[in-house]
Amino acid sequence: MSEIRVNSLGNETNTGGPVLSGITTFSGQQYFIPPTGTTAQRPSGCPPGSIRFNTDSAHLEYWNGLVWLEFEASSVELGNQTLAADRSAQGTGVRGLTGGGYNPGKREEIDYFTISTLGNAQDFGNLSEARYWTSSHASSTRGVWGGGAVSPTSPNRTDRIDYVTIASTGDAIDFGNLDSSRYGLGSCSNQTRGLFAGGYQPPGSQISNVDYITIASQGINAQDFGDLTYARYYLTATASSTRGVFLSGRTGTNPYTYYDTIDYVTISSQGNVQDFGNLLASVSSGQAASNPTRGIYAGNENTPINTIQFITIATTGNAQDFGDLTANQQQGSATASSTRGIISGGYVSAYVDTIQFVTIATTGNATDFGNLTAAAGNNGSCSNGHGGL
After folding, report:
1. What is the pLDDT of residues 149-175, one digit of tens each?
2. Closest to 220 in 3D by CA, of 264, 180, 286, 175
3. What is the pLDDT of residues 376-387, one digit of tens each?
4. Where would a tag sit more exposed on the chain, N or C end, judged by fewer CB atoms within 10 A?
5. Dihedral, CA atoms, 280, 281, 285, 286, nearest 10 degrees?
6. How far is 264 from 245, CA to CA, in rounded Å?
7. What CA–CA distances, in Å, run from 293 to 245, 288, 313, 338?
8. Coil, strand or helix: which one is 291?
């Protein structure tokens, strides 16, 4: 075996280097520096497997032959032991995030908490645009928010998608755009693909579109996936690793039409949704979350209720009674770990800062978890350990 030791290799203009082929081993106790550049400077037409460091996102990424994707290095066991004792995120476990919302105007703040613990939420950072009636989903590394209402900005809707790295704290980064600006949409994901469904475009358009994104990518706008059974808004969604499920919604102007509809899709494919079954009543503006097998749906808008319902995601059929929330609640958001469902924020007789939880595998009433950093509703929640992962 031959051994060559050099300090650097380059061409005459120092703009490139040689191609190393075959079995090439790099050894040592220091490091090597890959090519670097911004998102805008990404090359195209590279050999699949090409690697670079993105200085905008501060992550390594690779070319899969079609798009640039980030390397994933994650643990669902996250915690921050430097926080005060009353903060949930001081403990270690799956991390939940909730961002945006309304009270008494649009909000940009993101809170975080550790789902396996109890306690109050902690500030994480800010969305790239303040908004409410937004939606959120996540992979094990990234939390994503899409769409939302932005009043008093006109028009009162946005197509913005932004993301955070869940293991860190800090402000969200622009990801791309939905296929249309709207608010009141439902969102769910598995590890690789995120879906956005339905929504409302003032002054009176209900949306049937389902969009999808590849969560590890960036700078690529959402693409068409298919359509809902009914164009509607103020729906919500949840998922297993294979199925995305869309629940409830409303259409029209006051008096509104409310829906007990449950639709589903196979996340890895494309096409229109299929009928799953029905909720216990026609509702909207509730909260949904899941572990890998069971989805829960809580609350209602047209007649505020405390009912929690559940479905078994791998089957089809109607929802069943699970238990009750701590109050008649609407317009909050939910996320989950493999064991707990978390419902945060919302509206009772005013916007609330409450966080409550249930044990998804059993049935029963919700229990107090702690409080958000501020009262808010119409927020969007996600986690790095939900049922779609």
Report:
1. 999 999 999 999 999 999 999 999 999
2. 175
3. 999 999 999 999
4. N
5. -20
6. 4
7. 12, 13, 6, 9
8. coil
